[in-house]
Give the backbone structure.
Amino acid sequence: MNDLGKNLLLWVVVAAVLMVVFQSFSPKLGAADQDIVYSQFVQDVDSGRIRKVDIASNERTVKFERTDGSSGTTTAPVRDKDLINDLITHKVEINQAPPESGISFWSIVLNFLPVLLIIGFWLFMMRQMQGGGAGKGAMSFGKSRAKLLNEDQSKVTFADVAGCDEAKEEVSELVDFLRDPGRFQKLGGKIPRGVLMVGPPGTGKTLLARAIAGEAKVPFFSISGSDFVEMFVGVGASRVRDMFEQAKKHAP
């Protein structure tokens, strides 16, 4: 799947999650809609204008039909124990909905579905920010993404680098030190803390660095600058520290 397809799929998932969450937490307009207040309904019952009522299973929502053929809905603030007696006294036809038979499996699923979707979406976003690779867990968010090439995989040498004769001559001492550090350490020599290669893109900086590792037969770590940029503060610095820790473990 190309980048366009992945982006479209991501936005579809985001839209679906937002729609489900909005529908779950938005008030049910149909359930809250009342034709008349409950006090008016009681007055209509006492005056004999109610012919038939349908009481919901919660014993609070009442649908009624008047003697003139009009109908409506009202909701009692609490369960009115005297309502049934008043209806019987005024000879009103009563229909009571059967009580709900416990909590069904699908009702539990529908209640927890928005939460599960939010958790799944959060895990998906975390996986995307981590790179989505296999074997990367939630705790690898601040880990380095550097690609390691060991001695057998690093086949690039100075012969593969065209030009850059002065640069190759300057870094040749680094190759000698990496090959036999003991010879320099006996004389009190120390390897530089680092080498800064400056130049426009495509001038061979990375290739020359790989050639140094290939000539010295040492591991080589490759990573781009964009891998250190994240939306969360401190993640880039954590990846830099982790990369240097990995480099120290593979130091010759």
In short: Residues 27-34, 132-139 have pLDDT under 50 and may be disordered. The first strand starts at residue 50 and ends at 55. DSSP finds nine helices and six strands in the chain. The beta strands are 50-55, 61-66, 71-75, 93-96, 147-149, 220-222.
